[in-house]
Amino acid sequence: MNANTSDIVRTPVRGDDSQARLDTLAELSQRLLERARALGASQAEVSCSEERGLDVNVRMGAVETVESTRDRGIAVTVYFGKRKGSASTADLHESSLEATVQQACDIARYTEDDAAAGLADAALMAHAFPDLDSWHPWALGADEAIDLALACEAAGREADARVSNSDGASVGSSQSLSVYANSHGFVGRERGTHHSIGCALIAGQGDGMQRDGWYSSALAREDLEAAAAIGRRAAERTLARLQPRSIATGQYPVLFSAEVARSLVGHLLGAVSGGALYRRASFLLDSVGTQLFPPWFAIDERPHLRRGLRSAAFDGEGVATRDSALVTDGVLQRYVLGSYSARKLGLATTANAGGVHNLIVKPNAGDQAELVSGIGSGLLVTELMGQGVNSVTGDYSRGAAGFWIENGAIAWPVDGITIAGNLKQMFAAIEAVGSDVDRRSHVGVGSILIGAMTVAGEH
Known about the structure:
Blueprint: H1 18-38, E1 43-59, E2 62-80, E3 83-89, H2 94-109, H3 142-157, E4 163-182, E5 187-203, E6 210-218, H4 227-239, E7 250-256, H5 258-272, H6 274-278, E8 299-301, E9 324-328, E10 331-332, H7 339-345, E11 359-361, H8 368-373, E12 377-385, E13 395-406, E14 409-422, H9 423-428, E15 430-433, E16 443-444, E17 448-456
Parallel strand pairs: 7-12, 11-16
Antiparallel strand pairs: 1-2, 1-4, 2-3, 4-5, 5-6, 7-17, 8-9, 8-11, 9-10, 12-13, 13-14, 14-17, 15-17
């Protein structure tokens, strides 16, 4: 992190060399910035990263793959006035690093001026670097990872005789280090870990086979679900899909389960992100201050949550992050901008270069079971297929699978259907957001109930 970081409390992990590796990356970034200045760049920025990981896959009780990875990357961007050039390398030899900076400078000299080009404003750089509890290395060896994956798959396969096959189980653990530095004097360090266990199973026979699964992911090993519990949950979900039916085409209430509801938030983010807006390729142009959702609906960005999946003290340009409302009382409060897109739009950056940090969607209802009980008849969607979303018009049409709801209870599994609408109308028609938040994503949202959508099933 920055030189002014004496307030950070660091708890060293035995045998953990991450701080020394970050020091090395920070020193490297400074050498590259100095070289860019010596070659005449008016501004420059450097991103350095290292990743280490272990991934294991098993299937039908046998090991399929064991992969250990170590990756690194150095990216240099220079500005000669309003002309920009970028180059990257994974080679840390001095000659390669020199050549990378030279290439970035050569490219910049031959590009056209871009009035929006340049570093983010120096006054916006982060100065506080709180401990976000994102570093939880797991000393996971290949043998332990294999045992966990085998136990996960075995628990699922043994849960019911109707589980006839497996798409496998996986265990993964990774850690990443990164340094971002620029010619404003900013140096920001980040380190994070990510761990996961997952399983996918197949139940039934012949044309009646169905596939589903479950996974758990977290920054810390202790926050993962138990391997056997993941396998059993995968079996339950797969068995629940056996003997699906279609339904009559019509207009029905549609309840998106939490794991697919976050895709609706993703469509909102895509439409209010700077790139789509300055290219005029969004159905939400000029929508700040507009009522898009019901009056109770709210989305807040919380970048400093401890152990948050996307927590950060600064964005991809070194700009200090802060708590900020995206939607309040159903009204869009702002766009999602880095400094380049902000300049293109004549606005200010929202500290979102590189994306959003931990969105919290306000619930106004109980969990999924409570929401189901309040629906007379309708559709619970647990899987979406295809990419039928038009970002310019907001038209929405996707293949789906899930369960038919009758008299406030799950009646039977459904597949072979399409759900359709327009995202603006869908946002306005949201009746409830559940409290059953899926914690495996940086978009914290529960199940979402939309009052009516077109569902195409049997003709």
